[in-house]
Specification:
2 strands, 9% strand, mainly alpha
């Protein structure tokens, strides 16, 4: 499961570019660019706050979990190993 973001979509909806977001939030262009291109591996609380404030949205409008990617990776690896994995619900 991977955390993804909707920054590109929010920016398009508000007709903003990276420079606009930088000027309105004070966030670095590098941070915004990495989020926009989904190459960022971390995101700070202040960044989340500033972006949600700018776009007047909830955190769930900005960030989401993408479990499709992990499902496809799991199914591909299962095809090659032919192993079954059982989870004990009590141990989770």
């Amino acid at each position: 499961m991977k955390v993804k973001n909707n920054l590109r979509i929010l920016m398009a909806q508000h007709k903003m570019n990276i420079q606009d977001v930088h000027e309105k939030t004070g966030l670095s262009r590098t941070t915004i660019s990495k989020l926009y291109n989904e190459t960022s591996t971390t995101i700070g609380f202040e960044t989340i706050y500033q972006l949600c404030k700018l776009f007047d949205c909830d955190v769930s409008d900005l960030l989401f979990l993408n479990d499709e990617e992990s499902k496809s990776l799991t199914s591909n690896s299962n095809k090659h190993t032919k192993q079954r994995v059982y989870y004990d619900e009590e141990s989770e």
